[in-house]
Amino acid sequence: MGTLIVIEGVDGAGKNTLARRLVSAWERDDIEVVRVGFPRYDQSVHADLAAEALRGEHGDTAGSVHAMALLFALDRRDAARDIRKMLSRNDIVLLDRYVASNAAYTAARLEQSADGEAVEWIKALEFDRFGVPVPDVQILLDVPVELAAERAASREVADTSRIRDVYERDGSLQSRTSAVYGQLASANWVSPWRIVQADVDPDRLAADVFNQPPDAGKVTT
Fold it and tell me: Which residues form a coiled coil (predicted)?
């Protein structure tokens, strides 16, 4: 069975860049790796509904914290079987965002901390009820929120297909989400976490997380 590794962080943190560099490092060592990004836009009806809601469609859906969280959770529920298949056929499955993203943003929208009801609800919903695979390692790409916002804005200017949604444009939400992420990482929520900065050495990180003991600190469900 392969290792399930997740990269988390606020919008504009540089998760996509880090993911590409990690994949390159593993492939140079002949490690079989597959990468999946959440939400799975253009693949999942739930992810597409969430994206449309964030663009102002579907009435007041985007205004409901729990409705949005459910759409993102259902996207992962539908992907769970495929993730397990990938784990059976590869050394590493790398996910760009996962359950912790839902926990962090949901808690932040409700102005709760990581030990509040929202995070517990997400954990019970996704890991316990939906049975999505538990990560072996979670990586928090921790960058200043202001820098992440600048990157997200620059990305929007450079690529008209990547228009920022209402979450990405809300600086206060991004700040609160960053704080919850830090709390989740410090608590090793559901599995071991690594907190890294933007200047992390991807080759060293790739080696470190791949050699992480598979059950160290991991919560079984």
Answer: none
Per-residue pLDDT tens for 179-212?
A: 999 999 999 999 999 999 989 999 999 999 988 6
d(CA 78, CA 136): 20
Is residue 202 reached through a cis peptide bond, with omega within 30 degrees of 0 on the bond before it? no
Burial status of residue 175 (CB atoms within 10 A of its CB: 0-12, 13-18, 19 or more): middle
213's tokens: 């003991």
CB atoms inside a 10 Å sphere around CB 23: 18
Report d(CA 183, CA 115) in Å as an integer: 8
- The CATH class that applies to domain 3-210 reads alpha beta
Which carries the bigger pLDDT value, residue 77 or residue 14? Answer: 77
As a whole number of angstroms, the distance between CA 63 and CA 46 comes to 16
Torsion of CA 60, 45, 102, 160, to 10 degrees: -80
Q: Which tens digit of pLDDT belongs to each residue from 133-166?
A: 999 999 999 998 877 767 656 655 555 555 656 6
Bridge pairing between strands 33-37 and 92-96: parallel
